[in-house]
Amino acid sequence: MWVKACLTVFGSFHLLSVGNAVHIKRHHAQLEGEDWIQSIPGILAADPSALPEHWFDQQVDHFSKNTTVFQQRYFLNTTYFKPGGPVFLYSPGEGAARPVGGGQLRNLAEATNGMIVGLEHRYYGKSLPTPQSTPEDLRFLTVDQGLADFANFIRKFTHEGVSPKTKWALVGGSYAGAQASWGRQKYPELIHAALASSGPVQAKADFYEYDLALTEALPCAKHLHEVTKHIDGILDERDEEQIANLKTTFGLQNITDNADFAFAYTDILSGLVQYYRPAKVDPIDTFCQPFDTAKTVQDKLNIWAQYIKDQIEGPDSLHFYDYEGMNKNLSHDDTKSWYWQTCIELGYFQTAPREPLPRIRSKYCDLRQQVNACEKIFGKKMTPEITKFNRQHHGWHVRTPKIFYTDGQIDPWRKLSVNSPNAPKRHDKPSSPLVVITKGSHCTDLGTNATTDTQSLKDARQREVEAFKKWML
Ligand SMILES: *[C@@H]1O[C@H](CO)[C@@H](O)[C@H](O)[C@H]1NC(C)=O
Ligand SMILES: *[C@@H]1O[C@H](CO)[C@@H](O)[C@H](O)[C@H]1NC(C)=O
Ligand SMILES: *[C@@H]1O[C@H](CO)[C@@H](O)[C@H](O)[C@H]1NC(C)=O
Ligand SMILES: *[C@@H]1O[C@H](CO)[C@@H](O)[C@H](O)[C@H]1NC(C)=O
Ligand SMILES: *[C@@H]1O[C@H](CO)[C@@H](O)[C@H](O)[C@H]1NC(C)=O
Prior knowledge:
The protein is of the alpha/beta class and 473 residues long. Helices cover 36% and strands 12% of the residues. It has 2 domains: 247 residues, Rossmann fold, CATH 3.40.50; 180 residues, no CATH class.
């Protein structure tokens, strides 16, 4: 989950990850399924159970003559809608849809008399084009099929007060933020504007910059570098008993493969940065402070290990790293769907930077570890077609106007966004706003107003509302 998307559902209040409030704790930094919507406080509707599910007959394959359809789920919120108003089409991306209507979506809808539609992504939640999760079943799970779902939905959606003249905006966070940008670019005649929150629009296989972002965000990074080198040494020695003890210290004894273990112990930590939210008791400081008084590398390792153990809760906690288990179980599984997307098209593989760059991840976290994971899950060798994908979708070279790009300053995913320091230089313009929220992280802007909001976050939300008022009215 560590790479979750940013959901917004109607309703209840969920704090972010990092070991609190949510019944699921987050353990990894993949943009990935499950209830990741819950990482956006306040995005859910007040009473999710009161909102009916709706179903749309969606084309299984948009790129053939075969007209077979599946049932695609969506939710509606018409609280602020007035006939003639715009529609905000919210994608929950790589996780189940929930009734939406809270957080920034609410602010956007309120300001424009807009309707909110939350359309579940194919192969997540209950929107299943095929019954199982074999590679054969998953062949219709591509970014382009998902974007064509938006287009087909917009063309066919009927509701009182919605006409062919209605303006539609795509809204999403994380992978869905990238989708919003790719979708507006591909279907500008149907999608009038887009809000791309924390969208990694540039696909990349060897995504070591994620790890550099952790180093930038964590004041105790140098201690973590030291611990990781120590762990590399233990793994190099191949003493089975010592390695077993090491894994047990982190609560990760169930992960048999050493490289997979190496991935997990940093991936679980990364939620601390990815889902950072300013709070009275700052979670990053809370994690980092004890390192200052730790004397030995073993003491430092123990602090890190204890944090990981605290994140692991219940037998499903490590599902994300159970590649063989996913291979054996052919039922639909959101996590597996997300792996499919990364394994065939998007990459986003969080690897260790190569020396002399600083690294929090073990050197065993290389591309091979990630590509092997794909093979373990799907039973065949796979390489994401990154070059082709970026050529088709233009990565961070996108130039379509009326796409609002918002990122969090410390969010590791910013490294693949239009707001990345590595992206081609461009200027913030009214037709193409670029906003980076100071001390913000993943999809912070999509959440609900809170007393802990920084001025920078308030300004970002305000600018979004102003831009969409201009574009959608
Ligand atoms: C159309 O696609 C469905 C689902 O994949 C399949 O069951 C069916 O056989 C296909 N029909 C044709 C005519 O290819
Ligand atoms: C729609 O969203 C509004 C604003 O968040 C919320 O108060 C309302 O309960 C939602 N409507 C439904 C039917 O859930
Ligand atoms: C580890 O494996 C044991 C035995 O299969 C199982 O009971 C336990 O729930 C697993 N723990 C985690 C955190 O997955
Ligand atoms: C298979 O996966 C489904 C969906 O994730 C889950 O509900 C079920 O418990 C799994 N079965 C086994 C045997 O792990
Ligand atoms: C959130 O704050 C903005 C201004 O900062 C305000 O316009 C908006 O109405 C607030 N939303 C809610 C739900 O209170």
